[in-house]
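Lecture 7 notes: from sequence to structure.
We start with the chain below.
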Amino acid sequence: MDTQELCPLCGEGHVTQQVEPVETDYKGHQTLLPQHFLLCDHCGSDFAGAAQAKLNKRALMAWRKQVEGLLTGAEVAALRDQYHLTQALAARLFGGGPVAFSKYENDDVVQSESMDTLLRLVRRSPEAFRALAEEKGMTDELALTRPVSHVTRSATVIAINRRQEEPSPHYVPREFRTFTAAGAQSCK
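Predicted structure tokens for the same chain:
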């Protein structure tokens, strides 16, 4: 049984999936990204269908996040897992829209720098997570008395009551991003 797709351009040949590295430039940084496309064995036409275009866009978005020094889709998913959040709960807690976290995690879109900073702060500080949940009125829904996993997968219990006499820690947004001698950004 022949399951190969006919070429939509010539109607005679069959198309096969191809991947080739393509040099890409973004903000002065260059890399080779995989370029997915279909190739006709009869007319030699190459083109990207919807599935290939989606793969190409995701590879580009993931690389742009890296260049910008933003969390990757996998890191955003790990943060959500760290606090036992569904994508819908994460969207309600952090903002960004009902399907924002699906898009961040699949590298369909690049999160804003402010969203990235908020996610990094919460990733580093269960206290910040608890404070945000309290601010949004979601403490009961998120069951903050259960263990919260850290990135290393060790568990910690978050206390719900905050001592008022403790000063709030100062937050320095640029603390997360450092510059190397070559000017490249690295994130903590």
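Points to note: Confidence is low (pLDDT under 50) at residues 150-176. Residues 73 and 105 are 4 Å apart (CA to CA).
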